[in-house]
Amino acid sequence: RWAPPARPELRFVLPDGSARHMQRDQGEPLGRSHGKAARRARSAGGGRRGGRGAVPAVRLFSRDGAAVAEEVPNAAAWQDGAVLHIGDAQYRVERNPPALTELRLPRSLLAGFPVCPKVSAEFAAPQHCLFRWFREQRPAAGGDEAGEAWVETAAAERVFTPSNALVGLRLKLRCTPGDGEQRYGPAREVESSGPVEAGPGACTFDARHLYTKKVCGHGSVRTVSYNILADTYAQTEFSRTVLYPYCAPYALEIDYRQNLLKKELAGYSADLICLQEVDKSVFVDSLAPALDAFGLEGVFRIKEKQHEGLATFYRRDKFSLLSQHDIAFSEALVSEPLHKELCDQLAKYPLVQEKVLQRSSVLQVSVLQSTKDPSRKLCVANTHLYWHPKGNFGTFLHAG
Description:
Pfam families: PDE12-like_N. It comes from Malurus cyaneus samueli. Residues 14-54 are annotated as: Disordered. GO terms for molecular function: 3'-5'-RNA exonuclease activity. The chain has helices spanning 30-45, 74-77, 205-209, 231-234, 237-243, 249-252, 254-267, 280-293, 329-335, 340-346, 350-358, 393-399; strands at 9-13, 19-23, 58-61, 83-86, 89-92, 99-104, 118-122, 130-136, 150-152, 171-176, 188-191, 223-227, 272-279, 296-302, 308-315, 319-324, 327-328, 362-370, 377-383. It folds into 3 domains: 9-92; 99-191, Sandwich (Immunoglobulin-like); 205-399, Endonuclease/exonuclease/phosphatase (Deoxyribonuclease I, Chain A, 4-Layer Sandwich), CATH 3.60.10.10. Strand 4 and strand 5 form a beta hairpin. It is an alpha+beta fold and 400 residues long. Mean pLDDT is 87; it is low at 47-51. Strands 9-8-10-11 form a 4-stranded antiparallel β-sheet, with no helix packed on it. The chain has a 4-stranded mixed β-sheet with strand order 12-13-15-14, covered by helices on one side. Strands 16, 17, 18 and 19 form a 4-stranded antiparallel β-sheet that branches. Helix 7 packs parallel to helix 8. The protein has 12 helices and 19 strands. Helix content is 24%, strand content 26%.
């Protein structure tokens, strides 16, 4: 494995299934790596009773069978298709094989709602990975489990929607990383931390989804803007007793709400989605992986001194991101000549000025380019203006 500027990592899988790892500099001569590999092989095969065996001969041969000179640097020596000989053993060299670095399932699973795993990989892409979903085997009527603990489902896609029949059962995902060139790395498995729970039944957005079943053509753009209520605000006493007294406590929990959000947003088949009050962890661990599975790429801008911010998603087969130009309102107010007149007027009211300059509101600006016609650009502005139930002066100033 070699991803510049990192040091190359060599991994040997031995006949007994164990593995040995080495990290060497990319400019180091191959001969020094040979010596290290020989000592590792002797250490692995010597056994503790009989002592260490002789140091095995180590040679690297290119794909055409020619011996690679020991003076060649590691970066050039280790190529796909080469064969490493360590004593009598032979190892086929696979350079930068696909590998998973993270595989995670959501903590909350609801029947009828999509389960979107978080998949991070090196030298691989989620759209080229293989997915196999398993369900926990339900205990027999007598209470004793019979057969295997897991039963494979028919699902083989990245996103899996459990049915009501799976309520009470846990899920398992087996993912094999791939790079789109018929190369696959070792598979990894992850099990859900809890069982599938019953969903809420019909949702208000189900009727709206009837009109957005398909993505609109290249001549149109469908947009969605949504304040999704950051968890830090949903869990305050003011929120529970004043803003949302009609809402059951479980329905304000972020794990529960994420299930509804992902299903609703995916069901709109939008080309652009602008979200406000997005927790950073929700964007990284939940929304970005989920909407990526539905063809949407996302960018995030956190507010200053806050744990939430703005997220803009765009359909990647329609748009590519050219640039981002995010603006902090309070900073722009005092530094941009365009706003000098407004700033001078605000200075006449010191208390109001102080409140306005303390606000952390930002404007997230994304410049997109059409994938069909690169000459066409689209500037998308996403913001969350300051709001307070007792006054909206901040909103008016930010809008100005």
